[in-house]
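Dear colleagues,

I hope this message finds you well. In preparation for our joint manuscript, I am sending the F-box domain-containing protein (Oryza barthii) sequence together with its predicted structure, so that both groups work from identical material. I would be grateful if you could confirm receipt.
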Amino acid sequence: MEDGDGEKGAAKRTKLSAAAAAAGEDRLSALPDDLLVQVLLRIGGTTAAARTSVLSRRWRSLWCLLPELDFVPEADGGSIRAALAAYEPPSLRHLLVAAQDAAPHGMAEWLPVAARRLAGDLLLFNMAPKRDAKDDDDEEGKDGSPFLELPCFGSATKLSLDLGFLPLAVPVSGVFARLTDLSLDSVRFHGPCEFGDAASSRRFPSLKNLNIRNTQGLSNFIIHSDSLLQLDLRSVRGLKQLNVVAPALQVLSVFFCFADTQARSQPVADIAAPQLETLQWEDAFDPSSVEFGEMAKDFKNNRDCLRLLKRFRRDAISRLTLTLAFLPKDLRYFEYLMENMTMLPDIVSLNLNVLANAHAIGPSLFHVLRMCTSVRRLKLVTHISLDLEAQAVCSSDCVCDLPPNWKTEELLLKFLHEVEINNFRGTGHEIALVKRLFSWAVVLKDMTINFYHSVPESTAKELIERLLNVVPKTKRDEGEGAAAGEVLELPCFASAANLALDLGFIAVAMPRSGVFSRLTLLSLDNVRFHRPCDLGDAVSSPRSPFLKRLTIQNAHGLSNLSIHSESLLQIRLGGLKGLKQLNVVAPALGALYVISCFSDPLAMSQPVADISAPQLETLHWEDAFDPSSVRFGNMANVKCLGTHFYLAFGQEDFGHNGDCLRLLQRFQFDALDRLSLTLAYMSELNDLENEYLMEEMTMLPDIMFLGLTVLASGHAIGPSVFHVLRMSTSIRRLELATDIYSSNPQARAACSSSCTCDLPPNWKTEELKLAFLHEVEINNFRGTEHQIALVKQLFGWAAMLKDMTINFCHSITESMARKARNTHEFLHLPTNDIRFCMFQRTNAPH
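The corresponding structure tokens are as follows:
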């Protein structure tokens, strides 16, 4: 029956196509609505989709069937309102609006209509000119000034509003019945603000995640919520009182809300959150006015901390946040308890908060670091009690600097390349610690020191001179507030052709005028841009008319980058810390690389990017990706694609995996020349409640060349490679690299015999035909049992394989390579088709 129906449908479609061809009609219009909607989703936004209405009557209302709407800055409030009114489905699932310095009345035209129609999420981003938030208190803050009244979104599930400091009034009535996520950024609350009442359970019964960042006008925030799980407050300027009653709250983050140098009164906070698991308090703290209620019973002593660390001692963790506390009194009558801490998990980034109370923290930090010598990034925050702010150090007979071995004992942190120290006051204890950090971290590339807010500028400059005596000059970054006024003004190089600047994180201001009339290549590395930064203006066509290649790496202070260039052929962006918005309009661009720019674990808002590059052929987007806020426009010419790494085993909500899958889905119907994909394994998989995540990857684009990098950590990669290859059976060439980033000469050859990495076992028995694969290259080969088994399977899968090149790892000697080649498995392979290559070290010329 199915075969008959299929033949009947095929015959009907053939007849329709033939008739259409004979009559010279448009075959595309004959497609069903669902396929045409997929076409509209790929042509560059709702405005462009609506323009297809002029094609024919068939297309007139198709755009109204789109499951989501998005509007570019050129769309005014009236056109957005009209589009929302014409939208046919009963409810709107997703709405994205990017406005350009919109006024309150412009947004008020369409927001009420959106509130009635929206049953999903709204992302609103108002791209306002850069200005100091303090400047908003003058003209716009006067009574009677226009403001935006937020309507009640009764059916919305998620609201993310970045308003560019527009005045906002919260609704006085109405229930946000389905809202689970609310994010407010760059908002100035209008009038007497009752936001805490609005966000409490009575009117937000389903709210789970609340983020408030860079706001003004919220002096008192009192919230009572039975549903709230996560609360994040950052730079809520002028906050004086915080009261939170949240029985289910698990995560509370408070950053720089009370730390106002102009405020005379101390902050008042009362937190009742008995289920709290994560507390990040990087703010003014005084236990006499900041109370944490019943939370004390959950963190009642060191044993709780040690038990938790012991539970995860064998895990590989991206970031560990640890808080150490010192009593604000004589320590001679107390025991040194750090030695009770005997293990830490395998961590990449360590966030260490220390309530030092004027004591020396060197011995404790040394004890922690020698248990995590593989750490890559260290963030150290010293919290200072207000009543001890004037006290620089403890008494001379204090025992806090004991045991003294931290000053003499060797400690090798050979992977630590980034250190950030906050609330630095320049005490003798702190300077001694900085000196030791540089002796321990032999490959340190970046140290940022942010001074405590009460340190005068003159004192900061004196401390910088002292630090220069112990800190290598090429490895310093004096922090954003360290030396105000010491900024390098970059001149306009009118006749230069190439500029490559590695500035060691000194502050740089781009020239506001002048034309780089001959510049074709610009490379900026280790730069701290002085705000406001006009880099986008400087590299766009009016001022850099012949610029072809732009590279920006390891930069701070570049939150918004907007480039309009007719000449650019290649853009490389890597490690741009704090980047929030990226806009690129480059008709000739052929290659775009964006790597670790938006992937800030502390950032709560989504990245916003809009890329218009119709000639783009190479796209490496190894970063956060969500198509609701990152739009690529027309990219029909992309031939080479690179993605974020994908974790083979772990928790199913791992963020990088979602980024990778969404990007692959964006190009699932494309034919690519090359796909670069990276798979990663944790070092330990035993005793973990981690799932096999490869099965969540269900499609790949049509590709000819697959570049597969696997960070294996000694595990079997056969199941994951098999899973990837059976989705790309038409590949012609495979390049496989394993553990290319491993610099540890004692890296283990294989995991334990009880490890589950070799599951599921179907990769060894299930048939796989790679009928077109004729060339394979394997790099960093160690000759492990896992790797040899994979080579054997590759010969079974690829019947037409003509050429296999195996490049041994640099640590493999000739004798070790010979032993691997003579194993039983290799002797039974067609070794005439295998070319073995030893690692070649380049000798310096005599």
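For the figure legend, we might mention the following. Residues 710 and 756 are 17 Å apart (CA to CA). The longest strand covers residues 158-169.

With kind regards,
E.M.
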